[in-house]
Structures are given as C-alpha cells and as structure tokens.
C-alpha cells in the first residue's frame, strides 16, 4: 500500500467505477446495525468511505459482529484483548471474520476479499458482505439478531 502510486488510464477508470458503487446511505444503516448488534463499545466511524474503512480495517469490529450472531459459548472468532497493530495480524483477523461469515451461511459470491477492505480497493463489496450477513441473521430468526429487521431483506 505504501508503494502504490496514482492510477492512470484504464486502471483509474476501473477504480472510479468501483468507487461509484459505494452507498453512503447504506453505510449509515450498516453502522446503525453494527452498533445495535455489538453495543456502543465498538464506537462509531467518521462518516464516509475512508472512516468506515478505518473503523473496520483491523478486523475487531467485524469479529465482534459475527460473534454476536452466535449464542454464548459458540463464538467462532477469537477477539484479542488489544487490537492488532501488525498488518498481517489485522489481515488475519479479517480473514477469520470471512471464514466465520461463510460458515454462518454467506455465499462465496457475496464475500469481499481481505484487500478489498484492508486497502480500500472495493468498499462496496464490504457493504455487500455485511448486507448478506445481516439478511441471513434476520432470516434465521434465532434470537441473536439485534436491530430493526426492516434494515435487511429476508
């Protein structure tokens, strides 16, 4: 990420199209759900794509989110006491979230790649994954979903 220069030509056009898919209103809804699901301890991001990315980047909020969808004693992702500071540990935490989300029932085509979040390559894909996870949680109706069921499609 540190050695990445500006994009030119077709690369810039492609990245621009990807960035246009990001939905600010959807971001607000997802933040509301994550805070309702995990509690106020997760905090809130600064508004906008970059704030959302920074909030989720270390994987802790995502891990707490997926753990909150399981009953006590069956948490699929280990959440470290202190947020990871090393890049590979943060990426590993995101990968654990992705594995747990897939085990929960999110289909492969709805999943983002770790770099989509970590390097903010495709934040719209991150939104799609979270929407799929929320929709599944509402549909399962097992008592572990918190928030407004109308935020997601069944």
From TrEMBL:
InterPro entries: Calponin-like, CH_dom, CH_dom_sf, SM22_calponin. Residues 24-137 form the Calponin-homology (CH) domain. Coiled coil: none annotated. Gene3D superfamilies: Calponin-like domain. This is Transgelin. Belongs to the calponin family. It comes from Strix occidentalis caurina.
């Amino acid at each position: 990420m540190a050695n990445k220069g500006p994009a030119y030509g077709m690369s810039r056009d492609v990245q621009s199209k990807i960035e246009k898919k990001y939905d600010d209103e959807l971001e607000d809804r997802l933040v509301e759900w994550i805070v309702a699901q995990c509690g106020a301890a997760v905090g809130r991001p600064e508004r906008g794509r970059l704030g959302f990315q920074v909030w989720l980047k270390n994987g802790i909020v995502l891990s707490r989110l997926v753990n909150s969808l399981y009953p006590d004693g069956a948490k699929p992702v280990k959440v470290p006491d202190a947020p990871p500071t090393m890049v590979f540990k943060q990426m590993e935490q995101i990968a654990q979230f992705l594995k747990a989300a897939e085990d929960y029932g999110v289909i492969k085509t709805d999943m983002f790649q770790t770099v989509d979040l970590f390097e903010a390559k495709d934040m719209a894909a991150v939104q799609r994954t979270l929407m799929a996870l929320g929709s599944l949680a509402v549909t399962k109706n097992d008592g572990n979903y918190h928030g407004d069921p109308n935020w997601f499609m069944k």
